[in-house]
Design goal:
With about 300 residues, the protein is α/β, with parallel strands linked by helices. The protein has two domains: about 1-210, 3-Layer(aba) Sandwich (Rossmann fold); about 220-280, Alpha-Beta Plaits (2-Layer Sandwich), CATH 3.30.70.980. It is built from eleven helices and 13 strands. The protein has helices at about 40-45, 90-100, 105-115, 130-140, 160-175, 185-195, 210-220, 230-240, 260-270, 285-290, 300-305; strands at about 1-10, 15-25, 30-35, 55-60, 75-80, 150, 180-185, 195-200, 205-210, 220-225, 245, 250-255, 275-280. The strands form three sheets. A six-stranded mixed sheet has the order 5-6-7-3-8-9, with helices on both faces. The termini are far apart.
């Protein structure tokens, strides 16, 4: 398990992580989300011992990362896929990592095959595309067959096939009982991949819950209703405290009442309804709503309305 307790990191007068306490549990894919400047990358660096906390603690397997003997056997991580010497071949890069942690050299071809780089094993990394470098970084994370895996923006540079592959990889690793933590800005990918979410903003914990619960709690439920008697039904629903807004194709969007209650009211007032469909918000919509007060960098057009012509 990954655990942070009152984790705080300050750089001069800037607080990047502020009293963050969280637990990342095994057996599920945990998405680590937050706006730019939220402190995600700093938190990952603190967990991996690349930076020292100002106060608080971060542990993996119950211990600080820096105290682990042969850490690649316990924790695999990908933070920066480009941080590989350009003149080194893929197999030699992995062989050096394996040797440094007492990992059998036989693991190198295994992980290269796992990530689809067998054919590029003896090619120099400097000639790799970003997607190939991402695959090599994932191979390095898998090298020690660790129980904990941490990935920062792992789908950058991957094509659609690669994205589907990595999604299935994360699910398989979690299904094997491993702890999988994935930081990403791609809400659509997190919606398809993550089981659980940890969301931070300005270094603080905002949410720690399942994806479905996050979407349900963070966003207003809406119901799409289509009827030839829109004005009459709207008056009934507004009278019950609902908010009614025009939608597309003659439908209306209703907030504040469940689909079941809308159906009952329509029946009670003898209003024919041709469509009655609950519409749950997307993860992106829920994320934007919940983190609106934690956005550090906001474009001028979003703050004031665009003045471009």
């Amino acid at each position: 398990m990954i655990k942070t307790t009152a984790l705080t990191k300050r750089y001069g007068g800037t607080t990047a992580v502020d009293g963050l306490s969280m637990e990342v549990r095994p057996g599920r894919v945990t998405g680590f989300l937050g706006p730019n400047g939220a402190g995600k990358s700093t938190t990952l660096r603190l967990i991996l011992g690349l930076d020292a906390p100002t106060s608080g603690s971060a542990t993996v397997c119950g211990r600080p990362f820096r105290t682990l003997h042969r850490p690649l056997l316990r924790v695999g991580a990908l933070l920066d896929a480009t941080a590989v010497p350009a003149g080194r071949t893929a197999d030699r890069h992995l062989a050096a990592l394996a040797r440094s942690n007492g990992i059998p050299a036989s693991r190198v071809p295994v992980v290269l095959d796992e990530v689809g780089l067998t054919g590029a094993a003896r090619k120099r990394v400097g000639g790799f595309s970003l997607g190939m470098k991402q695959r090599l970084g994932i191979a390095a994370a898998l090298l020690g067959d660790p129980e904990i895996l941490i990935f920062d923006e792992p789908v950058n540079g991957l094509d659609p096939e690669g994205i589907r592959w990595i999604r299935n990889l994360f699910r398989r690793l979690a299904g094997e009982g491993r702890t999988v933590l994935v930081s990403s800005h791609l809400m659509s990918e997190m919606e398809n991949t993550a089981d659980h979410l940890i969301v931070i903003g300005r270094g603080h914990l905002i949410a720690d819950m399942g994806v479905a619960e996050f979407v349900e709690r963070a966003s207003h439920r809406r119901v799409r209703v289509r009827t030839p008697y829109g004005g009459e039904l709207a008056r009934v629903l507004i009278g019950e405290g609902a908010r009614v807004e025009p939608g597309d194709d003659g439908a209306v969007e209703v907030t504040g009442l469940t689909a079941a209650r809308i159906g009952d009211l329509a029946l009670e007032h003898r209003v024919a309804v041709h469509e009655l469909a609950p519409r749950n918000a997307s993860l992106e919509e829920a994320f934007m709503e919940l983190t609106a007060g934690s956005v550090e960098y906001r474009a001028g057009a979003e703050q004031k309305g665009s003045t471009l012509r």
